């Protein structure tokens, strides 16, 4: 198989719900060429090479549904496209894109022989595309029986993931939002700025800062001297100290305070440039220039005896706490200090240089060198066998101690955060025993940090993880808040633009600032802000990222669903106007007739609009006069509301008998039906859009919009007024409304 090849013809990023799944995926069209005649059991050694290179493939269950299921398929014979699917997913999993091992994957034949659609989970488009390319090269090497450096491949992808994917703090908050069914939009492709929720209901986070984090409070927290002054004024214990402007001034301050002291930057972070327990003037002089390099000034403070702790305060409450510990090595009379660090400390798999590691790699930096000098050692010294050597006094906060924190200490930490003005704060304090009040043991708060890392609480070195992401989400959104605004999705072959525009008009009259993204452009209220086609992903996102939008109406046709996906996760109301396959040329997408058993048909496309109706609370508005659309009712996980121009349509009788709702026409009037109840809304002739011609298509569009307004809970007066005024110019509308 030396000449075997796999050609990736096209790739499409589908960041929204699509015909395959409601989750983001990457769809690739691949041509396996002659490999179509060679399933895996016909390629000598392929099974052995792949399982040796990627042994974790045994965890893939595949459609067999049990551990090792994919390997059974591989041994018994499966095609290269399917194998590529699993290799991509596992490479992403090994590179740190969490959830991809159990992620979504499909491989389906296209109508052209040897060509497949490969669909895989897409947590980050750039990373997923890169993983696909790397997996293709790996698989071809296995098929051709060529050498391949799998570890190097994984390392390349891991570097990409580290640079591009959400950091652990942001990811924890996003995952907590997902558990509460709060949608999110990543606002930077390579950063941690994320929007939670849509439109006027949105909030924003950036790592562990939120749109509630005051710029003034953050600035205060960076000025450690000012922070001390403010929190000490309300009784929070802080170490005595002052800012200094030279090495000699630092020595003078240290001698005034009394040794031991701490020298640190006034506005540093991550512990850089911090020197503790300094007991001589010479040590203070050495520490000063290093601390000065890390910040805009230097503080000298009394050293508090004890262990450093990090307490996380969210919304005025303590939600997690960790403590640090001394880092030591034990001499063996043979290895240098550096070798002891590497063999006794850095071998810990929890240590690493990425954000995914709860513990950092220990290096002999300037602070460590000073610590070693105190003990008469250097990094190349060889300590005697059994001698304990201190490397760092306060290393990673690796030990969860949340349940040990004394209530008074928790209250003091919350007070410090409140005085500084932070909604989320990392409180650094030093004390001997966190289970006792601070004052009695001479403990003190030494720093208040904005935007603290959450990793130490999500993945502590020792102890149980804490739900800090959930605490932040719950602080941003009350229990009854979903981060959602009323959102209507409209799809179908014909009429979707007209229906969307009428619905937006009804919502506008109800008093909501409404955004509309449709083929005619982008509208905010009555104002058109974009004249080009906005019935697509980009247009919808412009609405959902706008804080002024209190309700949104989004049109999405077949091309959008196939090429981008639906531009939101769920909608309050999903409308399907009709499905007319003969009127749409979708051959470019390999779409087959409705009655085909092929996986890409008009039915599969338009049912996607129903699939995204909010479960339980959402409503699908469906055309009962279109048999294909009417059948979507059984797929909806919410309620269904039919519209029909035929009052005697047999489909509506069982629907009404079940207590459901229908909008139809009776005696020339638009009628709202619920069970046996009937409300006559207005005459068809009163609706300007219908006019004298009373075209069936126009009537159907009006009924669909009316049904949607009813589903949204709009009053009968709003519905009636909206239908009678749609299409009237703004000035005339204002006059008309003022007369009512």
Question: What structural keywords apply?
Answer:
34% helix, five-stranded antiparallel β-sheet, single chain, Dna Ligase, domain 1, 740 residues, 25 helices, 21% strand, flat, eleven-stranded mixed β-sheet, alpha+beta
Q: For the record, what CATH class of the largest domain applies?
A: Alpha Beta
Q: What is the number of helices?
A: 25
Class from helix and strand fractions: alpha+beta
The biggest sheet amounts to: 11 strands, mixed
Query: Which shape, going by the Cα principal axes?
Result: flat
Describe the fold and architecture.
The chain is built from 25 helices and 32 strands. The protein folds into 5 domains: 7-164, no CATH class; 168-211, no CATH class; 242-303, Dna Ligase, domain 1; 327-392, no CATH class; 487-735, 3-Layer(aba) Sandwich (UDP-N-acetylmuramoyl-L-alanine:D-glutamate ligase). Helices cover 34% and strands 21% of the residues.
